Amino acid sequence: MNKIKISAVSYTNTKPFIDGIERSEVKNQIDLSLDIPSDCAQKLISNQVDIGLIPVAAFPQVPNANIIGSYCIGSVGAVNSVFIFSDVPVQEIKTLKLDPQSRTSNNLAKVLLKFHFKVEVEFVSDQDAKTDGMVLIGDRTFGRKDDFAYAYDMGEEWMKFTGLPFLYAAWIANKTIPQEFIAEFDEALKLGLAHRKELLQQLPSVPNFDLDDYLFHKLDFELTLEKRQAMELFLGYIQQL
Ligand SMILES: C=C(O[C@@H]1C=C(C(=O)O)C=C[C@H]1O)C(=O)O
What CDD domains does this protein's entry cite (predicted)? Predict the structure, then answer.
């Protein structure tokens, strides 16, 4: 049987899932690659993989997109790894650098600035540009909050804006995947989440960052109905940008 090709996020947020796959027989049915989120999305869009843990902002670009399983990368309020870092208060931001590794959080920044903070901002892709602030996601944000005058946690701001949790990335397929495989894959993800304590013992500690709190309390991996509603709402806002 051909292996199912999967691209997953290469950040710490996905390590419990990878650990669960490694612990399970299902790994023998998978050809796994770890990529930055923007590449996970690109690989799924261009059919280089069958399933990706991809930024939900890219969902509309995926042919035959369907969410599989019961797990995701989400948060209920603050997530502590998706930020707008800035030198000035948000109301004074005029220019903002986007994160080339992101698809969801770049759009989330645009949505929050326009509809929640109600400020008009110019968005810049050039990483060398001098701007009032920047979007930064993933491990590169760990312990960085104090390096900037202002740090806005976008999971927290989204919750203030909508009263909903947020869905950053979901396991999305670009074709019909056999139900039997999905069930086995989902069990592996569940197993990985159940072994987070052991995983934490293997991970090197990060200065000024509480990894235990991050993997147990900030990230929320359950793909709930509310998170799906948040995704629908978010995609609707993106269309109004
Ligand atoms: C919580 C996070 O969620 C992520 C944010 C993503 C994005 O902005 O496109 C994509 C995948 C997730 O890794 C994070 O990376 O810190």
Answer: PBP2_Sco4506
Query: Could you tell me the domains of the chain?
Result: 4-76+165-224 (3.40.190.10), 82-162 (3.40.190.10)
Q: Which residues approach ligand 1 with their CB closer than 6 A? A: 9, 11, 13, 37, 55, 73, 79, 81-82, 102-105, 137-138, 168-169
pTM of the model: 0.98
**Does ipTM come in above 0.85?**
yes
Computed on alpha carbons and rounded to an integer, the radius of gyration of the chain in Å comes to 18
14-33 pLDDT, tens digit per residue, is 999 999 999 999 999 999 99
Whose alpha carbon is nearest atom 5 of ligand 1? 168
- The answer to whether residues 65 and 174 touch, using CB atoms and an 8 Å cutoff, is yes
- In three-state secondary structure terms, 24 is coil
Starting at the edge strand found earlier in the chain, the sheet holding 82-86 runs 122-124, 95-97, 133-137, 82-86, 150-153
| Closest atom, ligand 1, to C-alpha of 38 | 9
